[in-house]
Structures are given as C-alpha cells and as structure tokens.
Design goal:
The complex is a heterodimer of chains A (526) and B (187).
Chain A: E1 8-13, H1 17-28, E2 33-36, E3 64-67, H2 74-77, H3 103-107, H4 117-131, H5 158-169, E4 175-176, H6 214-220, E5 224-226, E6 230-236, E7 243-249, E8 255-265, H7 268-278, E9 300-310, E10 326-328, E11 346-350, H8 372-384, E12 385-392, E13 402-408, E14 414-419, H9 424-444, E15 448-451, E16 455-460, E17 486-488, H10 503-519, H11 521-524
Parallel strand pairs in A: 1-2, 1-8, 2-5, 3-14, 8-17
Antiparallel strand pairs in A: 4-10, 6-7, 7-8, 9-12, 9-15, 9-16, 10-11, 11-12, 13-14
Helix pairs in contact in A: 1-6, 1-10, 4-10, 5-9
Chain B: H1 5-12, E1 17-21, E2 24-28, H2 30-35, H3 45-58, H4 67-75, H5 96-114, H6 123-135, H7 146-162, H8 165-170
Antiparallel strand pairs in B: 1-2
Classes of the chains: A alpha/beta (526), B mainly alpha (187).
C-alpha cells in the first residue's frame, strides 16, 4: 500500500496484538496512523489448518542469536507478518493478580509495576467487552475483581473431565479456562467449533487475533497498513529530545523515511530494544531512551511445565482449544513452594487440544520412540492422550538481556543477541510444579505419566516500565522516560512476568496508554 | 461446493508444493513427487538414499510419504515459505548444511562400525545405530549433534506421515480443517 508522503500523526511499528490495538485506538481517536509490519501481508484465507503450514506464522525475519542456559525460543514465540505473534497465540487471557504488581514492595524481588491492579482493572474490563472472553468468573475463585465474562465458558471435553478428576482428588479446584474465543456470536464473529487449530491461525474469526478484532477497526478508520516494511532506525530531531520518524526498508531493499508526531514501537520484546539500540546517536550514544542503561535488560520467558499421560478412557484430545479447557491457580501465592527454594506464581492450563505432529504435538512428547514403537504409541495416544501445561513465573534478571551482535542482517542492521538463563528460584518452582502435575495425573488415573523438557513460553521485558527513570525505560503509559513521543507497547513493558499468559495484559496496557496519549496529545507532540 | 484453496489443501494433506520438471513448476504432494520420481534439486542421490533409509527406521512409511522430496523442496524454499520444523529449533537458515552434514555423518558412522553405508546395514544394525545417535554422538561423528539430528529427522518423518489429513485420519481422528467457508474465505 502506498505510504503518505506527508508527516502522519502516528507510526506504529509492528501489527501484532499491541501494535494493532494501539493503531485502532489512535485511529478511532481521529489520528492519521501508519502501521509498518516487517513481515508479509496476510488474510484469513492464508490461515491453513495444518501444523506444518502454520510455521509460516512464526518469525522469519533477521536471525536472532540466542545464548544462555534457557534460550527464549524466539522463532517459536515471535510472529512474522500481519497480526504478528498474536496470529498463533492460544487466546488464554487470564488477568494478572494484585500482588503481581507489587513484587518489590511485598517480596523484595524484581521491581514493582508503576501501576496497581486497581489502575488496570477498568482497562481489563473494557478490553474484555471489546474482544470478548469466554469464562466463568465465579468459578475462578482466584480471579481478582472485575466484570463477569461476556461469554459462557468453553465446553468441557473428555480430556478436561478426566484431568479435573485428578485435581479434585488432590483437593484442588478447576474452573473454565478464560479464553478470548467465541462460545457465541460476538461482534459479528463466528462461533468456535473446538477443532483445535488455534495456533495455525483462526480463519473464522472465533479467536481474538488482530485480523478479527483490532485491524479491521484500524483500517476502517483510515489506518494505512504497510507490510514488508522493516524498520531499521527511529529518527530523532537535532537535539535528540524527541522522535521525528523512522527509517525502513521494503522487500526489495529500498530504504524509505516516514515522519510522524508519535512513534509507537510494538515489534515485540526482542526487536524493540534491537531497533532502539541500533538507533544510537551522538545524543543517545547507548541507544535511544537508554539513559538508565537498562534498555534490553530483564528479558523473561515463562518456563513451561509439561505433563503428559495415557489413560484407559478415550480422551478426545483433538477436541477443544489449543490453550486448554480448564485452569487452576491454587498455587499462585508467590511463596507457596518456598520450602524447596522456589518463588513465584504459576497456573495450570489443563487439557490442551493436541495434534499428532509439530513441536507441541503428540509424537514430540515421546522423542525416545521411533520405528514400530512410535507407530504403536501414536495409534494409542491419538485416542487416550492427555496433557496440561503450567505457566511458571520467570523472575527478572538484568543479565538476561538483548544486546546487539557484530553480525548484521541484509539491510545492515545489527542482529539481536538474546541471553536468557532461568532464575534459580524460578527453576526450583518449575521443578516443584512438575512434581505436582505428575501427582495430579496419577490421581486422575493415568496409567502412564511423563514430563517434557522446560519449555520457553512468551517473551517479556527488555523495555521495562517503572516510576524511576534511573531503573526503567518507560513510564506507566509506555512513553520512554527520555523521549516522550517514543512509546513502547507490548510485553516488553512488563517489569515482572507474573504466572499467567501476557496477551490480555498487553491489550489492557495498550488501551490505557492510547487513551492517555489521545487525551494529552498536544502537550506531548513537538 | 467450489474448490477453494483451503478445501483443496485439506484434501491433499500437506498440500501441493511446487516441484520442477523440465524447467517447469508442477504442483504435487511430496508423496506424488516421489511416486513420479521428480528430480531433486538440493539433495544428491546418495543423500536421498541415506535419508529415505533413515526415515524408514524412524517412522516406517515416511519414504513413501515423500520425506526426501518434502525436505528437498523446503531446502529450496524462501525463508517466508519455510515449513520445516528445524526453523524454530535454534538453527538459523540456510538449513541445507544441517541435513547434508548429518546424513554424511550417519553414513560415516555406519562405515566406521560395519564397513558399509547406512542403507546397506541390516534392519537390526540400522535400529541399533539409530538408538545410539538418539542418545549421543557416536565416535568420530562429524555432523550436527547426533541426538538433535535424530530429533529433527524424526519430526520431519512424523510431519509427512502424521501431519497430513490422511495421516491424522489413519489414527482414527477427524482432521476437521475448518468450518464451512463463509464468503470471506475467497470463494
């Protein structure tokens, strides 16, 4: 699509959950918005129901160098193309808990968020109404205050009912998993048929991804979406006090400039700091908005705890949502497993729909099997397999960081290098959670129980927000402390990771930020 | 019902991939490409032989399902069209060296122990060597880490056998590709 030749109100870098939400809100607020997306254009007809074809939704941009004991799995977790990683996300949308926002004050760990749950609650409620979440707030006994869900919960299939039996026998509670997936027609979106293809992209609009929610709104309000446009640098004025636009490359390698009053970086937790570090100038020699020296730091990735089992009953494990059917947050208290040196929160996502192949498929759960043993396993597991996954909190560490490599991409931009090693307390929690999960499956009657390796789920941090400009990159609205019209959106803002999936909080933060920016536009723009 | 792209792909499993015959691109599934003996573009004949022999040990039926043609096709694909699982296993493209070095190491290991290439081993010898590389690098192994090579090739074999509509349904599971398409699916 042809870009405007004149200065626009706002450039949004990235068309994923955060970028699309920011663009939609700003455009509805009357602003002239351009979204620059590094990857290809994409429509619903491209979302092929296949674990193989779905790999096109994963990161395909410049390579990312990964180091540390527990790499973040950038290609798997990040997305590429219109809709970003939200196109393959599972739409598990729980809220963060009140205590997640006060880690430093309550536990002397990590940093406090610059906002409280009370500040974010109305934005959770607003996003929930707009995007639609299916769930049962009363059954979620752990849920912080908020409006009830606008849609009835996900149906329970045999896999969920079987595993729930184990939780009950262990004296634990389950509730319907809060999913941003339609259980009834919602804002014109079709109803899910629970065919388990969520991570291949949902072509019917049942799952709240940008193609079904925010992008149509943004485009209807005049937003220009330009795919195959890789932003290489944020431009600043002569004094370095404010952002003036961006430099980008198109698919042919031709460079372009686009000027704007506001630049929103929503290119995910690794590419955001990469672009900012690569935008260093004499006024910002350590990278844009890096006076704190924390740009790129505190990268976090939830260590996923994977529990698998075979049951005598048929589980219908191909049915449901990829994120699961039920949730348990009985162990959410930060010090629930302090006796084993663990710290942090976690939740169980129970009874994920599963396909035979791909990284999270049935075959991969038993990598030791091959030949006839693998065939026999697949035949049985397709009917009697069950699984659940715990999202385990990853404590922040300054050593887990995005830096620039000495290698460059085809446009001459230094590659990102990401170092990540799971915090020792988080590792202990992951191990304790694995033991709990196995006990639950045994209580449920599994005749075989096994576990998977530590999974890297989600990527957060790198441009964290905080009250103190000396220890954080952004304020609570995502504005960088150093450059007020350079705004970060997305999970990169998170100072701590909590023990829940991040996308709902990403949306709530974007809604809050965009409302603030629209309200204070004139005082922010230079 | 009109033959939409999605319905078409659903009916063909992995789907049609573009293979070159006489300088022209033809759309075939990997299984069809193998049946028609479509020439390889990246892999050499000896590499194909080793790959198919290894694939049969990892998952019987994978060579007939077009494992070698699937991998060869993907090694020629652009980054945006990459469908191999290795793309999110910490290996940056190009992926050809991973496969060719791994296959060469597999043959070398067979020669070191038994004096013949992998495809020439007896079924028990193939199984035993596969069991070894699943756990650790055999002595003198010069390819990518052997357990990782095993893991990737095994998943490729699973892709072509069980990642298709035919493969899923062979397990007694409905494929359920999609809801009947509304008009916005491009009919």
């Amino acid at each position: 699509m042809t870009l405007p030749s004149d200065k626009v109100d706002a450039i949004v870098v990235g068309s994923g959950a955060a970028g699309s939400a920011m663009a939609a809100k700003l455009a509805v607020g009357g602003k002239k918005v351009v979204i620059l997306e590094a990857g290809p254009d994409r429509g619903n007809s491209d979302l092929i129901s296949s674990g193989i074809w779905a790999r096109r939704l994963k990161w395909n941009g410049a390579p990312v160098e990964e180091t540390g004991d527990n790499p973040v799995g950038h290609v798997f977790n990040a997305g590429y193309g219109v809709g970003g990683s939200a196109m393959h996300h599972y739409a598990v949308w729980p809220r963060m808990h009140t205590e997640d926002f006060e880690m430093r004050s309550l536990h002397d760990r990590g940093q406090d968020w610059p906002i409280s749950y009370t500040d974010l609650q109305p934005w959770y409620d607003q996003v929930q109404r707009e995007s639609g979440i299916a769930g049962d707030a009363e059954q979620e006994i752990w849920r912080p205050p908020g409006e009830p869900y606008p849609m009835s919960p996900v149906p329970l299939f045999p896999q969920g009912a079987i595993i729930a039996r184990g939780f009950e026998k262990q004296g634990m509670t389950t509730a319907p998993l809060p999913l941003a997936i339609t259980t009834s027609k919602y804002n014109g979106r079709a109803v899910c048929i629970w065919d388990g293809w969520c991570d291949a992209g949902c072509p019917i609009g049942a799952l709240a991804n940008p193609l079904s929610t925010d992008l149509p709104i943004a485009l209807a309000h005049g937003t220009v979406l330009r795919a195959d446009a890789t932003v290489s640098r944020i431009l600043t004025n002569e004094t370095g006090e404010y952002a003036s636009g961006v430099e980008f490359f198109d698919a042919t390698g031709a460079a372009g400039l686009l000027m704007a009053d506001l630049v929103v970086l929503a290119a995910f937790s690794v590419q955001n700091p990469r672009i900012m570090l690569a935008s260093a100038t004499d006024k910002h020699p350590a990278g844009l908005a890096n006076s704190s020296g924390t740009l790129g730091q505190f990268i976090m990735s939830h260590p996923g705890a994977l529990i698998y089992g075979l049951f005598d009953e048929k589980t219908d494990c191909h049915m449901g949502a990829f994120g699961g059917q039920l949730v348990n947050q009985d162990g959410y208290a930060k010090e629930a497993h302090a006796n084993v040196g663990a710290f942090g929160s976690y939740q169980w996502m129970i009874a994920q729909a599963v396909k035979p192949n791909d990284l999270l498929g049935i075959a991969t759960t038993r990598p030791d099997l091959f030949g006839k043993d693998l065939q026999a396993f697949m035949t049985e597991a397709a009917q009697r397999f069950a699984g659940m996954t715990a999202v385990v909190e990853d404590l922040p560490s300054a050593e887990n960081a995005v830096t620039l490599s000495d290698q460059t991409d085809r446009f001459g931009i230094p590659l990102a290098r990401v170092s990540h090693t799971t915090h020792a307390s988080s590792k202990s929690l992951w191990q304790a959670v694995l033991a709990e999960g196995q006990a639950i499956f045994k209580a449920a009657g599994a005749r075989e129980v096994w576990t998977g390796p530590q999974a890297a789920m989600h990527i957060m941090g790198g441009t964290i927000m905080g009250d103190d400009p000396a220890t954080s990159v952004c304020n609570d609205y995502g504005q960088t402390h150093d450059i007020s019209n350079l705004v970060i959106a997305g999970a990169g803002l998170f100072p701590t990771s909590a023990g829940v999936n991040p996308t709902f909080t990403i949306h709530a933060l974007a809604a809050r930020s965009s409302a603030y920016l629209l309200q204070h536009w004139n005082s922010m723009i230079h | 019902m009109p033959q939409t792209r999605r319905v078409f792909l659903r009916n063909t499993g992995i789907g049609m991939l573009g293979f070159y015959v006489g300088g022209c691109e033809v759309q075939l599934t990997p299984r069809e490409a193998r049946q028609q003996d479509i020439p390889f573009r990246k892999l050499q004949a000896d590499q194909v032989r080793t790959l198919e022999a290894f694939g049969e040990v990892l998952l019987p039926g994978s060579s007939d399902a077009g494992l070698a043609h699937f991998i060869d096709h993907q090694l020629n694909a652009t980054a945006a069209d990459q469908l191999l699982m290795i793309k999110y296993l910490g290996v940056n493209p190009p992926f050809t060296p991973f496969y060719t070095l791994g296959l060469a190491a597999l043959d070398d290991s067979a020669k070191n122990v038994h004096g013949v290439q992998f495809f020439e081993l007896s079924p028990d010898q193939k199984t035993e060597l596969t069991r070894q590389i699943a756990k650790a690098n055999p002595d003198g192994w010069a390819g990518p880490p052997a357990p990782f090579f095993y893991f990737v090739l095994r998943n490729d074999a699973v892709d072509v056998v069980y990642g298709t509509k035919q493969g899923v349904e062979s397990l007694g599971v409905p494929y359920m590709a999609h809801i009947e398409p509304p008009s916005r699916w491009g009919e």
